[in-house]
Design goal:
Blueprint lengths: L7 H8 L3 H8 L6 H14 L16 E6 L5 H15 L4 E6 L4 H13 L4 E5 L5 H9 L4 E4 L7 E5 L1 H14 L5 E6 L4 H16 L7 E5 L3 H14 L5 E4 L2 H13 L9 E5 L13 E5 L1 H17 L6 E4 L1 E4 L16
Helix pairs in contact: 1-2, 1-3, 4-11, 7-8, 9-10
Length: 338
Amino acid sequence: MGKQKMTMADIAELSGVGKSTVSRYFNGGYVKQTTKEKIQKVIEEYNYEPNAFARLKAKKSKVIGVVVPTLNSKIASRVMTSIDRYLRDRDYTTLIKNSDHDIDLELQNIQWLINQNVDGILVSAITVTKEHKKIFEEAQIPVVVLAQDYEEGISIIDDDYHAGRYIGRYIGKTGHKKVGYIGVYETDEAVGIRRKQGVFDGLAEYGITDIITAKSDYSFIGGQKNTREILEKAEDVDAIICATDRLAFGAYKILQKKGYKIPEDVSVAGFGGYDESSLLTPELTTLKFDSYGMGYLGAETILKMIKGDPVSKKQIVEYEFIEGKSVLCRGHGCLEKV
């Protein structure tokens, strides 16, 4: 069969995809493998050969969409700063959408960015639902998920489980017996489930299994509310582990208001390594994730995907333990290595 006089619109219609997708295919842009196969099948069947204009490189938007769960977070700020610096140095513009910890709004933000024809999207996800997966699979641009594990695609995550286990073991080996834990809702799988499980497993290694738990959002007020709940359940609590530093700030306020001394009466530990944590009295014992590293890896990965370069399916960023003055050694095990 001779070469067919067809347009890219014809190819798109026969393939069941959009014209812009066919254009990206011919211009070397990012197209899902299953979609590529559909287009290739039509090309082979009709013996189509694009003209010189169709072979020209498509002009890219040079814009990367970024979806974050909140703007009111030190972690989110570090991630966004790192992403923006990396992309700006490579002549890309960052377009940021805030989901305000609302899953439905997060999905809307992702779809909105896709509709703006950005070159790729970085999603610092609250969670990854079936709806997320459907949008990611149908998107004809690269998507990288930050902070949540996305088995079906590309993700960059904190080592939440082992970080949690480290803190759990630290509180256990310093001789604490009656421990409270302020966590976040399970909709955030990384922090609400994996980090919590790590803490509990670390404590269990030291025989601490009867943990007084409370759940909150990520707020300072939530930390106060949950600390009150824990103290009502167990006045003799000798340590409170908080899923974030901001929750720990709330714990400090209530403990000090009620006359508890930190760490003499109650030890406090958190996660985040916020700059403000070092200004507390006493300085907070916390664990700092490499949020700048996460942003850097995310930006680097999305640009590699746009170019069609191979990338790692999952990358895990490191953490650093910051031993402040908010945890008291209550036993002989303090000299043990965690």
